[in-house]
Design the sequence.
């Protein structure tokens, strides 16, 4: 579903992403881990079209991002690590704006809003201004906005940050449920336990390069049979 | 087209959220306060606005009576278009390059052309608010047939859209070259603030030139024609708008209006479509932190007293943040320039200066009188020129979301308070220096007067800094998203400045009345000065004690 070939991105003299090759399959939950400044967010921003790669190719659903960015964006939903949401909109107004942009009809939009608002326990607050929401509530409304149009690809940057345990559990369940329906989930995280338990495959990035990729078992067998993901991660990113 | 409309709808909802969604606005404490502040500001400035519109309408009558109605209409359109250009430069930059909104929109399935197009429309709608207080009342007063009113409204929309689109195109091209400059946002803010000053001073200078020109009634038609020709060359949209408003043949007017509308739509579409790629490229590069090739070598600082560290942090923050710099550090320089410039360039300037010298010359010079006058000018003048340049009244507010640092660092309350007072003291004292220099150049006062002046300045700075800090400790505005909001939408600063000016007015009024009724004489000035000096010093001490006590009590209640 997601394919990156020889992707490079530099900021001044610093090469943030260095000749990155990566493939994420349909219906896969893919964990992207790495230390701070390793290139995780830059990679994600290139996939969703916020940053332009210096060179290389990015494909989503077989479509080259450079050729048809709008078609790619229709398939994707993205929640950044610190989501900016329109504070002067109410929760409903924000979700309706996204519904309009994705061209959702009224019925399916209302059904999705009701379903996800209930799942994240935020129904009571949808009529309030987002400026009054806590960080966790803003994270929830951003997640609902991302799930609203049932995207083929869900890209999340540090999605668990700010969520209470129950909401984090709900999100994980929704991620698994989406995958059963064929949705691809690509997310970055610093929580090794989440990556271990939730992901079908994991990639470890360091200094802009992929240093390990595969299922947890594949990574363990290649680097440290009896080690935990945390130990392998620390060793590879030293 | 659907997405373009969605984006425009979203922008309008965000811009006018209070009007479009008052229930939610009033429910949330953050937006409630902001909305009430807007209403209060509107109420205060509403009166001035009505006065301004009435003044404009009065001018229409005067010009029409002299057969110059058309000229006035032209000047109205030119003023409006100039205002749009001037304000559009910063609006376009801020909406296109310094708004988080664009990052939110980029991953959505909306084209860059739609994003750019919608932004241009929302800036146009914002700008049209100025038409409501300039073009619209002038047009209504000027009067005409139904097509005149139609042209006034549609012409305003088209001329604004066209102007904003052209500004956007120029800025999009320029940002491809300037987007990698370090601290670009701060740099642009400084440039735009200087532009405001140049605009204000330039406008006054042009008025003066206009006054100096000897225009005979015979040469007036030719002068108007020449002036119109030059304006039309610079602003062709104004020419089309004027034709649509004032020509006699309907077909000519209709043609001009249609041409203006078509040009606006075509240029808007061209800029949206052709400029979008360049815009996105410039935007992406703008978010890249420019790398300084030559890093400055810094000396490792020695161990300093904590209060001094806090003072230096305050001073550095104010100097490095353009909004703070212009509102606090430079106000002492700007006020004298803005006040003195029109006086000095006008013919009345010489009279004004000789009046001042006359008043000063009428003083009975003696040691006691000199000290009294110096003290009073220092004590009262520093309220007028210095109160806005003190930083203590926004000291806690400026901490904003970083307040947790203040709350958790092991710093004594005494150091927290003293550090903030020292910084405020520095700005207030430095802020009065330009005004003091001008006074010194004008009056060449004796030494004892200068010393007394600075004593007065010092004691007043002590009082206002302490009282300012006390107010900010009592009700800091910590929930803000940008420095502009912290300073410009801060009720503490507004109330403090108003109260200071009210106090100043009261003292001056009382002094004048006492003089008029011969209850005091020149020889009483020293005594009065000393009484005010003691009052200011005492108020400063009370402010200081309360600040220290309340800071300790309220430190963990700030949130």
Sequence:
């Amino acid at each position: 579903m997601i394919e990156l070939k020889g992707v490079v991105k530099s900021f001044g003299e610093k090469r943030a992403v260095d000749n990155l090759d990566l493939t994420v399959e349909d219906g896969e939950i893919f964990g992207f881990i790495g230390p701070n400044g390793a290139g995780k967010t830059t990679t994600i921003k290139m996939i969703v079209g916020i940053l332009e790669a210096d060179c290389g190719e990015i494909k989503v659903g077989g479509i080259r991002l450079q050729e048809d960015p709008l078609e790619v964006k229709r398939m994707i939903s993205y929640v950044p690590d610190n989501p900016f949401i329109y504070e002067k909109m109410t929760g409903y107004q924000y979700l309706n704006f996204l519904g309009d942009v994705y061209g959702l009809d009224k019925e399916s939009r209302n059904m999705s809003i009701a379903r996800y608002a209930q799942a994240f326990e935020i129904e009571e607050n949808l009529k309030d201004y987002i400026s009054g929401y806590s960080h966790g509530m803003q994270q929830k409304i951003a997640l609902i906005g991302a799930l609203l149009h049932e995207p083929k690809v869900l890209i999340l940057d540090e999605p668990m940050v700010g969520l209470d345990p129950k909401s984090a559990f709900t999100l994980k369940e929704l991620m698994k449920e989406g995958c059963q329906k064929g949705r691809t989930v690509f997310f970055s995280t610093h929580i090794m336990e989440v990556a271990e338990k939730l992901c079908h495959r994991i990639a470890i990035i360091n200094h802009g390069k992929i240093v390990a990729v595969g299922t947890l078992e594949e990574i363990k067998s290649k680097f440290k049979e009896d080690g935990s993901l945390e130990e392998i991660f620390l060793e590879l990113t030293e | 087209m659907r997405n373009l409309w969605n984006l425009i709808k979203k922008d309008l909802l965000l811009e006018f959220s209070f009007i479009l969604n008052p229930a939610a606005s009033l429910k949330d404490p953050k937006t409630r306060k902001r909305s009430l502040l807007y209403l209060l500001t509107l109420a205060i400035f509403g009166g001035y606005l009505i006065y301004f519109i009435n003044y404009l309408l009065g001018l229409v009558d005067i010009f029409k009576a002299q057969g110059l109605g058309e000229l006035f209409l032209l000047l109205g359109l030119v003023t409006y278009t100039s205002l749009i250009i001037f304000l559009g430069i910063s609006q376009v930059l801020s909406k296109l390059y310094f708004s988080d909104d664009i990052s939110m929109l980029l991953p959505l399935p909306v084209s860059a052309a739609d994003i750019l197009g919608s932004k241009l429309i929302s800036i146009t709608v914002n700008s049209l608010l100025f038409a409501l207080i300039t073009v619209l009342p002038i047009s209504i007063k000027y009067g005409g047939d139904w097509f005149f009113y139609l042209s006034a409204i549609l012409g305003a929309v088209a001329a604004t859209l066209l102007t904003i689109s052209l500004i956007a195109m120029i800025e999009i091209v320029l940002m491809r070259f300037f987007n990698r400059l370090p601290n670009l946002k701060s740099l642009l803010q400084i440039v735009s603030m200087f532009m405001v000053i140049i605009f204000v001073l330039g406008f006054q200078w042009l008025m003066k030139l206009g006054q100096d020109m000897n225009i005979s009634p015979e040469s007036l038609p030719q002068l108007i024609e020449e002036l119109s020709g030059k304006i039309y060359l610079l602003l062709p949209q104004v020419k089309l708008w004027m034709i649509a408003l004032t020509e006699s043949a309907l077909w000519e007017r209709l043609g001009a209006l249609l041409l203006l509308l078509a040009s606006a739509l075509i240029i808007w579409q061209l800029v949206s479509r052709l400029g979008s790629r360049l815009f996105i490229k410039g935007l992406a590069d703008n978010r890249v932190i420019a790398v300084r090739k030559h890093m400055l070598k810094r000396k490792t600082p020695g161990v300093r007293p904590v209060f001094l560290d806090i003072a230096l942090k305050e001073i550095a923050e104010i100097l490095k943040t353009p909004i703070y710099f212009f509102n606090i550090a430079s106000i002492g320089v700007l006020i004298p320039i803005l006040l003195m410039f029109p006086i000095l360039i006008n013919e009345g300037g010489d009279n004004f200066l000789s009046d001042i010298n006359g008043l000063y010359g009428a003083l009975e010079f003696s040691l006691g009188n000199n000290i009294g006058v110096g003290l009073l000018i220092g004590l009262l003048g520093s309220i007028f020129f210095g109160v806005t340049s003190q930083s203590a009244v926004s000291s806690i507010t400026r901490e904003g979301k970083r307040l947790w640092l203040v709350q958790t660092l092991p710093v004594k309350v005494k150091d927290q308070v003293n550090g903030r007072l020292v910084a405020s003291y520095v700005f207030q004292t430095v802020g009065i220096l330009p005004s003091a220099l001008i006074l010194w150049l004008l009056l060449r006062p004796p030494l004892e007067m200068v010393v007394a002046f600075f004593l007065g300045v010092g004691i007043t700075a002590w009082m206002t800094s302490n009282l300012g800090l006390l107010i900010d400790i009592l009700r800091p505005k910590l929930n803000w998203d940008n420095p502009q909001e912290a300073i410009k939408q801060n009720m503490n600063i507004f109330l403090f400045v108003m109260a200071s000016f009210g106090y100043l007015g009261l003292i001056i009024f009382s002094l004048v009345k006492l003089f008029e009724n011969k209850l005091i004489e020149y020889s009483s000035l020293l005594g009065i000065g000393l009484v005010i000096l003691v009052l200011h010093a005492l108020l400063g001490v009370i402010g200081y004690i309360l600040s220290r006590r309340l800071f300790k009590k309220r430190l963990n209640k700030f949130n």
